[in-house]
Amino acid sequence: MQFDSNSPKGPIEDQWTKHKFDLKLVNPANKRKYKVIVIGSGLAGASASATLGELGYNVSCFCFQDSPRRAHSIAAQGGINAAKNYQNDGDSVHRLFYDTVKGGDFRSRESNVHRLSEVSRNIIDQCVAQGVPFAREYGGTLANRSFGGAQVSRTFYARGQTGQQLLLGAYGALNRQIKTKKVTMYSRHEMVELVVVDGHAKGVVVRDLVSGEVTTHSADAVVMASGGYGNVFYLSTNAKGCNVTATYRAYRKGAGFANPCYTQIHPTCIPVSGDHQSKLTLMSESLRNDGRVWVPKKKGDNRKPADIPEDERDYYLERKYPSFGNLSPRDIASRSAKEVCDAGYGVGPTGLGVYLDFADAIKRMGKETIAARYGNLFEMYERITDENPYERPMRIYPAVHYTMGGLWVDYNLMSNLKGLFVVGEANFSDHGSNRLGASALMQGLADGYFVLPYTIGNYLAGQKPGASDNSPEFKKALDEANDKIKKLMSLKGSKSIDYFHKKLGKVMWENCGMARTKETLTKAIEEIPKIRAEFWADVNVPGDSDDMNQSLEKAGRVADFLEFAEMMCMDALTREESCGGHFRLEHQTEDGEAVRDDENFCHAAIWMHEGDDKKPSRHKEELKFENVKLSTRSYK
Amino acid sequence: MKFSLKVWRQKNKNTKGGFEKYEMKEVSPDSSFLEMIDQLNEQLNTDGKEPVTFDHDCREGICGSCAMVINGRPHGPTDGSTTCQVHMRSFKDGEELVLEPFRAKAFPVIKDLMVDRTAFDRISQEGGYVSVNTGAAGDANIIPIEKEVAEQAFNAAACIGCGACVAACKNSSAMLFVGAKVSHLAAMPQGEPERASRALGMVRKMDEEGFGHCTNQLECEAVCPKLISSENISKLNKEFSIASLLERKSS
Predict the structure, then answer these.
(1) What is the pTM of this model?
(2) Residues B145 and B200 in one domain
(3) Which residue in A70, A264, A618, A621 is deepest, having the highest Cβ count within 10 Å?
(4) How many domains does chain B have?
């Protein structure tokens, strides 16, 4: 099967402008005849729904939360990148493009990344116009901070709640369209099947989580904005409800799933404290602007951090990466933390932690300045750990945070399934094998506000409007969804759903986490089908299916994770190289840096469903680097 | 730690609910309140009973999903915290914990501790935004905004829409929620053109949805997990009064 990116030809700076002109348009009077379904109401889904509504399309937006304002984009803390060069420090569209391609360890698609960098500037303009209260300087202009993987200051922020403020901006835009009836909002609804008719995505099956009713909805195009799959690890910084079901169901209906093994482990999270733990909490990467990361030089040194003198501390990021230091990219900072802890230098009760120390910054700038910058993060930390970070360094450890892999899309953000568009974290194209900080918010809003609204028109212009769910495919998808629910409810086994989710998570973290080997991955591929078989024989889903039933919701999601996880491990096993967040112990330099294999793996790996109990097939989209020269990524 | 739980159980909005008692043992003091309920639900699952339904998602205090009354106080005993940010070390070993859903006419119970807060969405649809189409914005630095003003706007915009203000109020008033949005946008030049219609639209919808009036008891401010100030209620009153006068004058 061919996966053609459909990227425009010509110089990269002109591609998007030229492409926008070449795209077919839908006449304003005809737009109202088309219906678009959007799954998800985070930054990508809400901005797409609102903008498509403004253009005149009829939009139905679905989210599983009780309100679109609660999608997990809300939890993003640190900021959003944009190549505004307001700091006059040498930033440009080209530099953001360069940093993102390099940061992604040369596994993203150049044309998409360049477009992302271009529209990054419009996003800030749009959000400011919506009244998003970004941080400002005394003169009234917008403030910036630095983030990992960049040597310029291009991150816009609203204290430690940037995601919240941007999402509320998009939620406002969405509400305005709901009010004008261009968007119909379905909250507490979960997509459980995609409907494909003659190779085109034509609708979805959803379950009303309150009444339990399962219904079909038809449309002229379907947009997937359903986020990432980090919860396959059970413990992650994702919200509890985040899941792979929407994208995995699309994969089962023929959409290619690209690079599922690319997961981002975020370096600054609060360490795990015990078995009761249900999720992990991120401490924004922005803390690395002023915090210094260190461990004691002596193994198992359990003195209080303040009692350890300066020359007995190892500021390992500053030592190993002098030019980027504490602001090294996420994959590198995470791996370095794992290395020092594995070697026995870790701190805290479990030994799985490193210090993030603000003592120097407080001495230099005063407690007030630090409180103004990070006050809410410090409070959050103290609340969870009962320790005061103004007085004692934070303890941090890496945790699963973001997934770069996702449904394959071409330059128009369309899957190989015609009429299925994928935006935000749910797609794969922009971050390669490692996402830079403050780039997720940028991508979600770029896709939703400024890319999809153009490219979807190109597809719709070639389609006759008039969605209908009369075809047998809708009936079949509805039956499939109902059968799955019936089966889950009928098992009445002896074990809880969380039992299986935790078991799967442990296998994934240990074997497909920060460091992977042929051996661990092979082991996981043997283990996962066993857990799956046990799940389908012995899980207990209490309650009824025609009622609000959180256990049933969870069971459906875990069932999909149990299949998806295996594909993730296969992808990691096949990719015989280390790149970004994918680190294969077999492929590293003597001092532990990732070794890519550009000759054999400079491609996106795309997995296609071949049927139940059959191994999925692997396909390639070759990646060409014509503007940023393929080189070994160095932050030294 | 050990706890005696009294939990409100209600099958749906049409059935009558009641309290059920559960005994909890071996709860870690480092557990969050919701992790304690997870533990209860695992226990119920093992006993062949139906788990307690409750809203939750991000579990880090920002999505606004989690919402319950713990020992008579929305979000429990910790100031400036959502339910998910309360840890079991905040309670005494052996303490009795009473868990109820948020109670308000405008927030009907869906099941157990879960309520329907879509009334907040409907209020927000009546002008809780700046009407600007995608692509219509000028350069972001064209309008300078005083740092102080931006900070004030942020303080109001930090509302997470959880509804604790309504649950704490004896009149089930939503004035703090509405006040937060109205004063966030009234503080900024971007919100100026729709200032009056926003205040009128949101307040009228609030009344229509069945939220009560504010009688200045400020229970809302006391329980707000984001410490939204009651000044926003004063600002809302001012915005609404001016808007009403202007409306009368023009009609």
Answers:
(1) 0.97
(2) yes
(3) A70
(4) 2
